[in-house]
Amino acid sequence: MSALPDPGASRALLIGSSQFDHLEQLPAVANNLTALAEALCLPTAWGLPPQNCVVMLNPASNDEVMEELRSAVEHARDTLLVYYAGHGLIDLQNALQLALPKSHQQWVGSALPYDWLRQAVLAGPAERHVLVLDCCFAGLALGTMAGTPELADQASVEGSYLLAAASETSYALAPPGERYTAFTGELLEVLRAGIPDGPELLELDFVYRHLRRSLGAKRRPIPQARNRNTSARLALGRNRAFLPSPPVGTVGADSVSRVWPAPDGVRTAQDFIARLRDVRQRCGLTQRAVSQRSDGRISEGSVRTLLNRESLPTTWTATPAFLSACGVPEEQVEQWHVVWARLRVDAPKSVGTAHPSEAQVAKPAARIGAAWRTLAGRIGRPKSR
After folding, report:
1. Which of 86, 108, 250, 254 could lock 91 by a disulfide, CB 3.0 to 4.6 Å apart?
2. What confidence tens digit (pLDDT) does each residue in 157-169 have?
3. What's the average model confidence in pLDDT over 2-19?
4. What whole-number distance in Å separates Cα of residue 155 and Cα of residue 109?
5. Which residue did the predictor score with more confidence, 318 or 2?
6. Element (H, E) at 56
7. If you average pLDDT over every residue of the chain, what do you get?
8. What HEC string does 298-363 produce?
9. Helix, strand, coil share (%) of the chain residues, nearest 5
10. How far apart, in whole angstroms, are the C-alpha atoms of residue 297 and residue 308?
11. What is residue 217's three-state secondary structure?
12. Pick from 170, 127, 132: nearest CA to 151
């Protein structure tokens, strides 16, 4: 059965090296860390509290990394996620080394041994572990790992799930002109937008298979994965493209209302828009996903405008397209239409054009003036000794 980790009892440590003294620079790694932290903390995804997600960009030493890792290991009770992005080096013993800013291609002893990280993770009380390695060898001189299992085999951890990006060179890992590395960019798309026609929760194995297809279609290195025990059913978050099915075996408007926020009781334009936001929240779709599911009836920008406006839509065009794309049944869309029409008729009455009388304006002004004169008198009055 799918399991979404308890955010309060879980921890994430995101490690990245983007600046190097002796290796090629990887500026996209810095973008990776910032965006991944935001995605993991989205309430519509995993919902990890920001204080439970630590970002380490360009750590100075192995000791600094291990100290932060130790803290994450000690506090994680449900799930511990550890992510690394940067250069991956292989030493003479064919062991994986994670490059830090001062690491040297000819001296891999200056990098963080992956086995240190692995042993620290295993020493903690967390029930499950997720390891994500977005790294490659430092240039063609060290060969490639595309199509070979060495990286994932070395990184395997009992009771954990590993996602490893297989890249030939740093250029394949961080394509020029792109904001993120190839692997993490695709992973971010999954966390932000979800996977259409996918399950409600983003199970790790489902995410892995999707990444293999999507990266393969772009002719990019194919990721690898290793699974121990039941961690494949662990979820990285909620699928924001998941479209809930109508309840089976129920009939009538009442049952539909229990699934979708209905316009019942809406009396103002503000309430109308707020209820539309509730619909989007319930369906879990991003604004872009709503647009895509509308078959061109409403653009992403129009969805954004509809959900952030203060007044009632002046035409009945964008609203039904939005509701249908979210999955709201046609019968309930018609209920929305009735409420919209009523609000359009009542709008002039609710706005009103009455102005306050001269006496109503003068009285508050007189009271304020008297209050200031009293206060000024008190300030200027000599104090008794």
Report:
1. 108
2. 545 788 888 644 4
3. 89
4. 18
5. 318
6. strand 53-57
7. 78
8. CCHHHHHHHHHCCCCCCCCCHHHHHHHHHCCCHHHHHHHHHHHHHHHHHHHHHHCCCCCCHHHHHH
9. 45, 15, 40
10. 19
11. helix
12. 132
In three-state form (DSSP H/G/I as H, E/B as E, the rest C), the secondary structure along 80-131 is: EEEEEEEEEEECCCCCEEECCCCCECCEHHHCEEHHHHHHHHHCCCCCEEEE
pTM: 0.62
| Nearest alpha-carbon partner for 238 in 275, 198, 209 | 198
User: If DSSP codes are grouped into helix, strand and coil, which group holds residue 210?
Assistant: helix
Alpha carbons 107 and 278: distance in angstroms, whole number: 56
**Other Cβ atoms closer than 10 A to 143:** 12
Tens digits of residue pLDDT in 205-223: 999 999 999 999 998 888 8
DSSP 162: E
Q: 379: Cβ–Cβ under 8 A, 6 or more apart, which residues?
A: none
Beta-sheet pairing, 160-164 with 112-113:
unpaired
pLDDT in tens, 38-73: 999 987 788 899 999 999 999 999 999 999 999 999
Q: Looking at the chain, how many residues does it have?
A: 385
Question: Two tokens at 214?
Answer: 């999507």
**Residue given tokens 């959900």 in the structure block:** 307
Residue 96's nearest CA partner among 114, 121, 70 is: 114
